[in-house]
Amino acid sequence: MPRKIVKTTQSNINKMTSSGGAKRVGFTVNPTRRASEYSRSGINGTMYVASTDNGRKSENRLLSNQFSSSSNHKNVQARSNISDGKSGFVYAIKK
To answer: How many structural domains compose the chain?
Structure first.
C-alpha cells in the first residue's frame, strides 16, 4: 500500500497534478482498497485523497492536468469512465 493516505482538498490535488508532481491520479469510492491494489502492482508513494460529489468532472480535471504537465505518469486513460454525478474520492499518488 502507498506509505500513507492523506486527506486534502481538490484544490491541493489539482496544484500537485498541474506541476507534474503526481505519478497516478484517479477516482475511487474506497481509497484504502485502491491503495492496496496499487501497492500490489508496484506503485508506491503517498496517496492524497479529496472527497467529490461529481467524480467524472473531478477526475477529468485531474487527468487533463496530468497529461498536459508530465510525460512521467502511470495513467493510461485520458478521460474518466465514471458515471456523471457519482460521489467518492479523487486521488493523486505523489512521486
So the answer is: 1
SS3 sequence of the chain: CCCEEEECCHHHHHHHHHCCCEEEEEEECCHHHHHHHHHHCCCCCEEEEEEECCHHHHHHHHHHHHHHHCCCCCCCCCCCCCCCCCCEEEEEEEC
Residue 16 belongs to domain spanning: 4-94
Q: What is the pLDDT of residues 50-87, one digit of tens each?
A: 999 999 999 999 998 888 876 667 787 888 998 888 99
pTM: 0.88
